[in-house]
């Protein structure tokens, strides 16, 4: 049962809309964003989420605000608010800066969007060789079409491998606190007709021990020059578990996710989000409302725990200290595409 | 702010009551159990939970049913239903068998209960040397007074260490799917006036990396002769993470949790529970209602990942192949107490 991919971000005739991902899987609702408040809130509340999708949405948002705001000061302040709406991923700042530096902002945002779709296709092609027939896979969080406003990164590669005849089966971590795995990844996999099984995050270890897992593949929010990778909370632990079980651990991320100015993951800021995310889900409380909470939204996985990184330029392998700087010399994104 | 400990199980004058732990932390409600259906359901639905508390409750339950059921056949069938209400923990079957073999079943159940309280005190005394001053601890699931119908095992040891002046600080895994950490452990720690911080299970790795964790301590449902330990899902992964970070990983469990007939963890049955536990969070749906789910309630941690096991007879250390069989020679529980 394959349906058309969901569109995370849509721009047409001056109208910017986003899929409100907080409502999935119960509702597929497109919402219009007109003002800087609406754009910033959509990003901060994770109505739009996934590093590449945020980049595409921020790019359109800034282009839209350029037309809406006549004062340069007001526009510049608004653009900075969009640029800084989330701190960990590098795509948002990169996309906003690119739009700001362009002559036709709308055209530039559209180019970024088209490039993302091409990049995702190329990542999926590059990843194909990593999947054995009947591959049993663990993934974490959501890296599907709705996370990139394209075909998806890690989940896009999984879906493409299945369409290429590999017959994959996916164990999906629910991904607390916001349950992107349960709400979004399961939804996208079933929509694509792929066998998908949900589990709690802490079942990943026994799954690796007993369920014949062939590989783990997931996305990234920022990658340093040495391969250290910031991604959704839980990624670092999965990488340690994978190493312990001798299971390959892959990251799929476009070149724009690499921060070539950062020598290691030590410098990547880790966003800590609000305690209510952990104390509750969808309004249902677990702990008391004053419970102190530790809620880092991301962690940093050392490069030495990552088997390989899939990019639109092919598979990047250790030693990352050489292969990642080499990637820096390739033109970014769509300049080539 | 220290309050009286919660009572998980209470028996007096022929009336058996249990604290319905599903209602915590919102409500502290004692519920009466009269029939085999009510006793079995309380165990199966986790209204009463924690291996030792289930043992105490099952012991009283069987003693109560002996008085209620005049037919021997009916009583024997009822006792077997109680004995088999949950398969992984060894305490329930052990306590029921002990009551069945006794002449005064009520007195035997009361002895088991009193013994549990003494055992918990001795475990806490034995564990004290494992806690440095200002110890920063990770724990998982709930092993407090309400889990044992006594002082608690691992969480009892943490509380006792704090009362002995160690000033502990505890990072509590929320423990999906049933959130015993968020609902019960946070509640018991705050009730005991101890600093406790809640986190999602998949934040444990970054906490070990960045929050100066001194030790991990948690309970067990069954321990084999070689130290392999069945415990709440997530324990095995935590043990791998602890080894990776060089952090001591302790299990606290009474002698009755050891299965001296089982040579390794390979033979321990792993209960798989219903998919709805994972598809929902505290009653709020996450994934769609037909989503396939992998929901093992326990995992088995190899003995070589466990630094030491705290028992009422002191600290049991590797090589477990020698120290655990030696423990088998000690009298079980209260024969000594």
End-to-end separation of chain A: 31 Å
Report helical residue fraction of chain A.
Answer: 25-40%
CATH level 1 name of the largest domain in chain A: Alpha Beta
Q: What is the CATH architecture term of the largest domain in chain A?
A: 3-Layer(aba) Sandwich
**Largest contact between protein chains?**
A-B, 57 and 56 residues
- Find the CATH topology of the largest domain in chain A: Rossmann fold
Taken in chain order, the helices and strands of chain A follow as: EEEHHHHHEHHEHEHEEEHEHEEEEEH
Write down the domain tally of chain A. Answer: 2
Annotation field: number of helices of chain A: 12
CATH superfamily of the largest domain in chain A: Translation initiation factor eif-2b, domain 2
Uncertain parts of chain A: none
Would you count the extended β strands of chain A for me?
Answer: 15
What is the overall shape of chain A?
globular
Report the C-alpha radius of gyration of chain A, rounded: 19 Å
Largest sheet data of chain A: 7 strands, mixed
Beta-strand content bin of chain A: 15-25%
> Which assembly state applies to the chains in this document?
homodimer
List the strand order in the largest sheet of chain A.
6-5-4-7-10-14-15
Quickly give the structural class of chain A.
alpha/beta
Q: What's the mean pLDDT score of chain A?
A: 94
